[in-house]
Design goal:
Two copies of one chain form a homodimer. Chain A has about 270 residues and is of the alpha/beta class. Chain A has one domain (about 5-270): TIM Barrel. Helices cover about 50% and strands about 15% of the residues of chain A. The first copy, chain A, has helices at about 5-15, 35-50, 60-65, 65-90, 105-120, 130-140, 155-160, 170-180, 195-205, 220-230, 245, 250-270; strands spanning about 20-25, 55-60, 95-100, 120-125, 145-150, 185-190, 210, 240. An eight-stranded parallel β-sheet of chain A has the order 2-1-8-7-6-5-4-3. In chain A, helix 2 (about 35-50) packs parallel to helix 4 (about 65-90), helix 8 (about 170-180) crosses helix 9 (about 195-205) and helix 10 (about 220-230) crosses helix 12 (about 250-270). The radius of gyration of chain A is 18 Å and the shape is globular. The interface between A and B is large, with 61 and 61 residues.
C-alpha cells in the first residue's frame, strides 16, 4: 500500500520539485469578489504551474468565504488538478489548507468532508485538541496530514514558544509527539520557514517527518537558509508553499519554473557538500 | 454599542436559560445522508427548542460534509433562527462551532465567511496560532469568539495539560491570555464541563469570561458540579451546550424545557447559599 508521503516523494521525483503551489484566491487578487473569479484564478494557476508543482495547496478560507458557490468552485479546482495530473501521467498531491481540529464524530465529519466529499489527499490540522482529534484522519489509507507546529506569524509565540517545565518550547513538544504518532508515514509538520534556527530545532526533534514550510520568499538567500535547516539527509523532507510570488508574477508559469529550478539548484549544492 | 456578551446576557435574561442548543445533524442521526435531511433535522430542532435556548450552536462540520449543499443548508438554518427570533421578539445568538484558526488574510477570510457570508454572531476558534490569528474576528462590532481552552476529549491533555515552566498547565496560560485580550467584551472560553476541578481553576484564571462548557449530560448531578465550578458571582458566565440529549429525546421541545428548568433550579439554589 502506498502511504501519503511515499506518494508525495514519487511526485517530488517526477517533477524534480519541492515547490508547493498555493491556490489562495484572495479577494484582493480577483477582478471581482465572486466564486467564479476565484475559480478562474485557480484554474489558471493550476494550468500554468502544474508541471513544476510537487503539490497543490488550495486554502479553504478563500473558497468558504463565497459560501456554497465557493465550495463548488473548490471542488472544481480539485477536479481540474486531477485532470492535469492525468494529462501529465503523474499524479499531483493536493493538500487542503484548512487547519481543522475537532473531536470524535465532529473530527470524523471533517475527515469525510476533506477526503471523501472534496477528495483531497492531505489536510493541515491544528494539534491543540490532541491525538484523538487527529486519529479519524489517520484512519484513511494513502491520505496524510500536516500538523501545525510552529507557524510564521508574529503571534505564533503566544502559545507555540511557551517554555515547558522540561525546558523545551511547546512547538518542540508537538514535533516530538508527531514523530511518535507517525507510525504509518502519514503525518508531517507545518514549520514556518521564516526562522531557520527554529526549523533546525524542529528537524532535530522530528528527524524523519516532512515539513510544509511557508513564509519564505522566492529569494535565493531565504530559500537556502530554509532548505539547509530543514532538509533531511536524503535531500527531501521540505515542501515550500508559495502563493503570491507565483500568482502575482507577470508569467506565473515561468515564475513557478524559476522557483522550482532555484530550489533544485540549492538542494544539489547542499547535497554536494 | 452592544457587545456580543451583553447581547448574550440579554437573551439569557429573556429566556431564563443557560442552555445552548447544539445543531449537530450527524449523519447517523439522519434518515438519509443528505443536506436536505440535515436541514430538516436542524429546522425541526430550532422550531421546537427556540423558546428555551439562550443560544444556538450549529456545528460547521456536519454541514460541510455535504459540500456546497450543506453550506446552503447551514445558511438556511441561520435564517430560520433569525425568523424564530423575530417571532418571539427576542434575538437568539448564533455561535458557529467551527474551531477555525489561521493567520493574516486567511483569518480575515474566515471571519468574513462566518460574520458576513453566514451572518452568525459568534464563532469558536483555536488559540494555537496566537493573538494575531484572533484579531480579525475581534474587529467586528457586536460579534464574539469562544477560544478553545480545555476540551472534554481524552486526548486534550496531550497539549492542553502540559506543564509550563511557571508550573501552570497550558490551558491556564490560554485562560489568562484570553482574560487579558478581552478588552472589548467579546472573548469567551471553551472549557469542558467534564472535570469540575479544571473548570474551577480556569474560572480563577479568567474571572470574568463566559465559558462554553460542553460534555455534561442532562443529569442533575453533573450539571450542578459544572455550574458550581464555573458560574460567576452574578449567576451567569456558563453556557451549557447540549445536542443529543435534546435531539434524540422523544420530544425535543420538552427535553429542552426540562433541561432549561433544571439549570435554572440549580442556579437559584447555588445563588441562595
Amino acid at each position: 500500500m502506498e502511504t501519503f508521503f511515499s506518494f508525495l516523494e514519487k511526485r517530488v521525483d517526477d517533477s524534480s520539485s519541492l515547490l508547493c503551489v498555493g491556490l489562495d484566491p484572495h479577494v484582493s487578487d480577483l477582478p471581482s469578489p465572486t466564486a467564479a473569479s476565484a475559480l478562474t484564478f485557480s484554474l489558471n494557476l493550476v494550468k500554468q504551474t502544474a508541471r513544476y508543482a510537487a503539490a497543490f495547496k488550495p486554502n479553504a478560507a478563500f473558497f468558504e468565504v463565497f459560501g456554497a458557490e465557493g465550495w463548488t468552485a473548490l471542488k472544481q479546482v480539485i477536479e481540474a488538478i486531477r485532470e492535469e495530473s492525468d494529462r501529465m501521467g503523474s499524479r499531483i498531491p493536493i493538500i487542503l489548507d484548512a487547519k481543522r481540529g475537532d473531536i470524535s464524530s465532529t473530527a470524523e465529519a471533517y475527515a469525510q468532508s476533506a477526503f471523501e466529499s472534496l477528495g483531497v489527499d492531505c489536510i493541515t490540522l491544528n494539534p491543540y485538541l490532541g491525538k484523538d482529534s487527529i486519529a479519524p484522519f489517520l484512519g484513511y489509507d494513502e491520505r496524510g496530514v500536516f500538523l501545525l507546529c510552529k507557524t510564521s506569524n508574529p503571534g505564533s509565540g503566544d502559545l507555540q514558544d511557551v517554555k515547558l517545565e522540561t525546558g523545551e518550547a511547546l512547538h518542540i513538544h508537538v514535533a516530538k509527539l508527531a514523530q511518535t504518532w507517525n507510525t504509518r508515514n502519514n503525518i508531517g509538520l507545518v514549520v514556518g520557514a521564516t526562522h531557520p534556527q527554529v526549523m533546525e530545532n524542529v528537524r532535530t526533534a522530528a528527524p524523519s517527518l516532512w515539513f510544509l514550510a511557508p513564509g519564505v520568499g522566492a529569494q535565493g538567500g531565504e530559500l537556502k537558509a530554509a532548505l539547509k535547516a530543514g532538509l533531511r539527509a536524503d535531500g527531501k523532507g521540505v515542501l515550500l508553499p508559495m502563493s503570491r510570488a507565483i500568482s502575482r508574477a507577470e508569467n506565473p508559469g515561468k515564475a513557478a519554473a524559476d522557483i522550482r529550478d532555484e530550489i533544485l539548484h540549492i538542494t544539489r549544492e547542499l547535497k554536494s557538500r
